[in-house]
Amino acid sequence: MFIYSNPVARNMNTAIILGPLGQSSTELPFYSYRVPAGFPSPAQDHMEQALSLDELLDIHAPHMYLVRAIGSSMIQAGIFDGDILVVSRGRTAAHNDIVIAAVNGETCVKRLSKQGESVVLLSENTKFPPRYIMEGDELMIWGVVVASLRRHAVHG
């Protein structure tokens, strides 16, 4: 965990921690057939193998947890309001990683930038300014975002 420190708070709540991610033994059929954006018709003879979401998303519980993204500050990174983020606590955050961070106790999802001696949390939307971590700010990196999930249809 990366830590910095300062008592000035900003409203940056852009992530809600949902909880730890458990292993799944569910396997789904994986089709080698590439689906065009038109009308798909994958046939049984195109099935390549069974694939688990754990394998597909490279999930290694218990070092993984889920977060729901809030707002539009990361849309240019493909993270939209309501998306579920898969976060790894086992990976060390590096320059340019998308991270779950807490700045002075306020959680957020941002791109981590190390500019010389400075640490900056960047939004992926030009409407949101960068958040420079100042001396005395408390910055805790809670994990690195490794995948995102989005529902395209909601069933009643």
Automatic annotation (TrEMBL):
CDD domains: S24_LexA-like. Keywords: Autocatalytic cleavage, DNA damage, DNA repair, Hydrolase, SOS response. GO terms for biological process: DNA repair; regulation of DNA-templated transcription; SOS response. InterPro entries: LexA-like, LexA/Signal_pep-like_sf, LexA_repressor, Peptidase_S24_LexA, Peptidase_S24_S26A/B/C. Pfam families: Peptidase_S24. Residues 29-146 form the Peptidase S24/S26A/S26B/S26C domain. This is DNA polymerase V. It comes from Halopseudomonas bauzanensis.
